[in-house]
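FYI - complex with fe (ii) ion, inputs then prediction.
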Amino acid sequence: MHQPAALDLINESARFFSSPDGDPLIALEKAHLTQLTLCDMLEQIADSIPGQINRETCSKLGSNLLPLIRNIHQFEEDILYPLAVERLGTSPAIESTITRLKYEHCEDECFAEELADALHELGTGKAPRNPEAMGYMLRGFFEAMRRHIAFEHEHLVRLLRQAATDGQHGLVTG
Ligand SMILES: [Fe+2]
């Protein structure tokens, strides 16, 4: 995705997830698409340090990063995970999946605060004080986020879709 379209998606999703509506599984697809787009942008920034940094992109991402991440996490924790428990039932596996996902959200939000500050600094046009550390920070964030999304997809979305399909075919009775 080109950068202007990616920035628009991030901006629009941050707004959408401040008051999400519609089918939660479709909203989650949007959340994952937006977060993966964000990861791709952060990877491009990491690759552009120190010589080819797009200041404007850094500045815009620095402003949108935290609202986006927080709003998506809130949607997942307030709407999606309770729905998963309702549809899949309580089991040690589901409980430990949700505990792990919430813990990772917490870690990502802490990390995102630091990253937003660093992106704002890059956006001002100052050369990064420590380009290697900056690149390392960016990579640490987007790699963790990609792993989180893959886990969330494999251990929650797939099961929820399966439950919805079974429900449609009358395999789930209550
Ligand atoms: Fe999540």
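The chain has one domain: 3-168. The mean pLDDT is 89.
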